[in-house]
């Protein structure tokens, strides 16, 4: 994306003072903390004008009680429905929405941000010219959430999605000097995950197909995404859970061959979820699958499906659904 050179130069001169009048928490600790993020060692002062992209990044901040520490959020229009259903709705309403489009350098520079939270290819993008390296050039620091380190750079780092979430919450706690909040939140999530693991049903786990979108070929969740964790903790088995990918496109043949017993449909603003279910019910190759025959469609809200603090709750609810159908 093209940008105005005068704007960038002006911002790079001013950013050192952006948010300088905003006080950090009393007794907030050292001037900087050193964090490892996607293979890079970064020294962070306390961000004063933080910007987060999409629900995954934003709800990490909200779960740590940081809504009042944010300059704003960039929230694509496709998330309008999920945001309205979020338990953090009051926080969303309290923070300025800077854009309802994709993350861009122009937006964060215009907001005089000093720090950006997003994922790789989920906000940050080489093609769109908004990367941590390019933001560094204009004085804006960033943090890339750990799940997306999997396909970042020439030497990707693979961290299981749930461990990646805990890592991010811990490190965000350090960056914003709210370590105690982060420790309490992580302890709660870990305890609930352990309860789910202890209560796994006996027998073969239910075969689950996670359907995001697509008619010619389905777009689904591989091993390196939150829905794979949600399905597993709930007591199911993602039919492509052995695929070492994040969100990816597969062929319908593999779905048909797996004979899913439940189809989990992700609900967000690309099209009404009932239209997605109607397509799946009318798609001839799936007609004999147990999921279609028994009308077993489970709606997974986008805010639960993306990596974030609501993944454990999503697993708890999906586990209840599986028990309700005898799986």
TrEMBL record:
Signal peptide location: 1-23
Superkingdom to which the source organism belongs: Bacteria
Matches recorded under InterPro entries: ABC_Transporter_SBP (IPR050902), ABC_transptr_periplasmic_BD (IPR002491)
Chain ranges of the Fe/B12 periplasmic-binding domain: 49-327
Keywords assigned by UniProt, alphabetized: Signal
Signal keyword on record: yes
Keyword Protein biosynthesis annotated: no
Entry-linked PROSITE patterns: FE_B12_PBP, PROKAR_LIPOPROTEIN
Family membership noted in the UniProt record: Belongs to the bacterial solute-binding protein 8 family.
Protein name as it appears in the record: Iron complex transport system substrate-binding protein
Biological source species: Amycolatopsis cihanbeyliensis
Lineage of the species this protein comes from: Bacteria, Bacillati, Actinomycetota, Actinomycetes, Pseudonocardiales
């Amino acid at each position: 994306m093209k940008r105005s050179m005068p704007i960038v130069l002006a911002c790079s001169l001013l950013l050192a003072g952006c948010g300088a009048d905003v006080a950090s928490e009393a007794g907030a600790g050292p001037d900087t903390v050193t964090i490892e993020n996607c293979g890079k060692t970064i020294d962070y002062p306390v961000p004063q004008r933080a910007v987060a992209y999409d629900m995954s990044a934003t709800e990490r901040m909200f779960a740590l009680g940081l809504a009042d520490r944010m300059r704003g959020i960039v929230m694509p229009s496709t998330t309008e429905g999920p945001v309205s259903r979020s338990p953090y709705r009051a926080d969303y309403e309290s923070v300025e929405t800077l854009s309802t489009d994709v993350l861009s350098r122009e937006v964060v520079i215009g907001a005089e941000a000093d720090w950006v939270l997003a994922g790789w290819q989920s906000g940050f993008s080489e093609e769109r010219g908004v990367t941590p390296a390019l933001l560094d050039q204009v004085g804006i620091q960033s943090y890339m959430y750990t799940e997306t380190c999997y396909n970042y750079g020439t030497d990707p780092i693979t961290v299981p999605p749930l461990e990646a979430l805990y890592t991010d919450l811990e490190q965000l706690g350090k960056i914003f000097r709210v370590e105690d909040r982060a420790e309490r939140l992580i302890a709660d999530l870990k305890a609930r995950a352990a309860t789910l693991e202890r209560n796994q049903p006996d027998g073969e786990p239910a075969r689950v197909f996670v359907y995001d979108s697509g008619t010619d070929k389905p777009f689904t969740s591989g091993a390196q995404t939150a829905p794979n964790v949600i399905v597993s903790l709930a007591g199911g088995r993602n039919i492509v859970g052995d695929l070492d990918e994040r969100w990816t496109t597969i062929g319908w043949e593999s779905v048909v061959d797996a004979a899913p017993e439940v189809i989990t449909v992700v609900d967000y603003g690309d099209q009404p979820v009932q239209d997605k279910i109607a397509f799946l019910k009318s798609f001839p190759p799936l007609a004999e699958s147990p999921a279609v025959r028994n009308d077993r469609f489970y709606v997974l809200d986008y805010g639960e499906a993306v990596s974030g603090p609501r993944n454990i709750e999503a697993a708890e609810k999906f586990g209840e659904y599986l028990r309700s159908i005898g799986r």
